[in-house]
Design goal:
Layout: H1 2-20, E1 31-35, H2 39-50, E2 54-58, E3 74-75, H3 82-102, E4 111-115, H4 119-132, E5 138-140, H5 143-149, E6 160-164, E7 168-169, H6 172-185, E8 189-191, E9 196-202, E10 205-211, E11 214-217, E12 220-223, H7 229-233, E13 242-254, E14 262-265, E15 268-272, E16 277-281, H8 293-297, H9 305-322, E17 331-342, E18 348-351, E19 358-362, H10 366-382
Helix pairs in contact: 2-6, 2-10, 3-10
Bound molecules: flavin-adenine dinucleotide.
Length: 401
């Protein structure tokens, strides 16, 4: 009896020790948990697995269910902040590599922008001038050049126009699915549906997570849970100032393929997939009206099909003014998504303050940034490096808390 009790005690001590043991890298694979299977979380999981980590992804809903599936998914390097632009440009190189390796179907058509005379034109001109002074190929074009490169459009009066000859757009759900398929081939384990509810801590160090599927011991955790990120990081004492910025997009029925560019015209932006579907909107954010107040406060679904149809038809009509091929398009569906937008609009990337085990990766432009973020986060987690390119984007920078 005594013998049995001591064996049981030894087993329970061993279980606890195993649960909380931190393997030394080189002797055992580092076990990293990634919370969220949006495009950012999946890219991180893929890069970690490629570097030899043991990876578990936790997803509370479905693959790409958050901002990713509601994204316009323009991938571009256009930004006047030099550090941020460099990060974006590096990420475009990452997308080119992934596209070659995995056949992601990215449409590398660049982008075109124009405005008729008026107040908005002055802002667009200032943007184009600011970008002309950078290394990014987004330059002013005159009306003749516009006619040559944008013959698919009926632009009306042009006061200012610009053309980006790099970047493009992708289907965020299809691409995330392909990245995840590769990640799984490399051994990434996916728990879905499975929400991470609590962090298991010992002082400032992570020991594991409590999930809706039970507890799991982990060496590191990457929180890439989009607009839900503060809910988890706050459990480790970090509450970033993160807004959720709503945005709708109409998805049309497929029509004749007319353009491969991302288009920012007067009061409307749109793109077209290789199979003919047009995706676009007539505003980046909802109007500042009373009716739209709730959407600004928290994530909601569309109130009714009628309102959805009204928005869809209005947007398609606006697109059709500038892209005749869209005249035959019908609304297919509308999405309402919530951008994870840090207060200063730059990504938040790095270990939480005071932690060497919990890492946060939350950002707008996550579609553009997924490849570079996957690579750099992996280097910091597995290689124990401090990547210089990420240093302007640390969680403890001023203005975020
Ligand atoms: C309208 C709109 C237009 C956009 N346009 C562009 C654009 O043109 N270019 C661009 O680069 N970016 C754009 N974005 C932004 C881009 O889509 C996001 O930055 C990106 O999708 C974020 O990806 P993510 O993986 O970080 O987050 P998400 O895609 O939001 O994924 C987070 C995941 O975490 C899961 N999760 C949350 N909490 C938990 C938990 N506790 N346990 C388990 N799982 C959890 C969620 O279910 C979700 O699936 C746009 C976004 C919107 C909404």
């Amino acid at each position: 009896m005594t013998n049995r009790r001591s064996i049981l005690k030894a087993i329970s001590t061993l279980t606890a020790a195993t649960y909380f043991a931190r393997p030394v890298f080189g002797q055992a694979k580092l076990h990293v948990g990634v919370v969220g299977s949006g495009i950012v979380g999946v890219s991180i999981a893929l890069h970690l697995a490629q570097a030899g980590a043991k990876v578990t992804v936790f997803e509370k809903t479905a693959l790409a269910a958050g901002a990713t599936s509601k994204s316009f998914a323009w991938i571009n390097g256009s930004n006047t902040n030099q550090n941020y632009r460099n990060l974006r440009i590096k990420s475009l190189e990452g997308w080119q590599k992934l596209d070659r390796e995995l056949g992601l179907g990215i449409i590398w058509g660049g982008a075109i922008k124009w405005q008729p005379p008026g107040e908005v034109a002055a802002r667009v001109r200032a943007d184009i001038m600011a970008m002309a002074a950078t290394n990014y190929p987004f330059k002013e074009i005159d009306a003749d050049m516009f006619r040559r490169v944008g013959s698919e459009f009926t632009p009306g009066d042009i006061d200012i126009a610009g053309l980006a000859t790099t970047g493009g757009h992708l289907d965020p759900v299809s691409v995330t699915t392909k990245l995840m398929a590769r990640a799984k081939l490399l051994g990434v384990d996916v728990k879905m549906p499975c929400a991470v509810e609590e962090l298991i801590m010992s002082g400032n160090d992570l020991r594991g997570v409590k999930t809706t599927d039970g507890d799991m011991a982990l060496d590191r955790l990457v929180i890439a849970s989009g607009v839900d990120t503060p809910r988890l990081t706050s459990k480790a004492g970090y509450l970033p100032n993160l807004h959720h910025e709503p945005g709708i997009l109409v998805h049309s029925t497929a029509v004749e393929v007319a353009t491969n560019k991302v288009v920012y015209g007067p009061g409307v932006h749109f793109k077209q997939f290789a199979y003919g579907r047009i995706v676009g909107a007539d505003s980046e954010t909802p109007p500042k009206s009373d009716t739209h107040q709730e959407i600004r406060r928290h994530a909601v679904a569309f109130p009714s099909k009628e309102i959805e149809d009204m928005h869809s038809q209005r947007i398609i009509d606006k697109i059709a003014r500038f892209l005749p091929a869209a005249q035959k398009a019908q609304p297919h569906h509308l999405t309402l998504g919530f951008r994870p937008m840090p207060a200063d609009r730059f990504p938040i990337l790095g270990y939480l303050p005071k932690s060497s085990t919990i890492y946060v990766a939350v950002m707008h432009s996550g579609v553009t940034l997924a490849p570079i973020v996957g690579r750099m986060v992996t280097s910091e987690l597995i290689g124990d490096k401090q990547e210089e390119i990420l240093s302007p984007f640390r969680p403890d920078r001023p203005g975020l808390l």
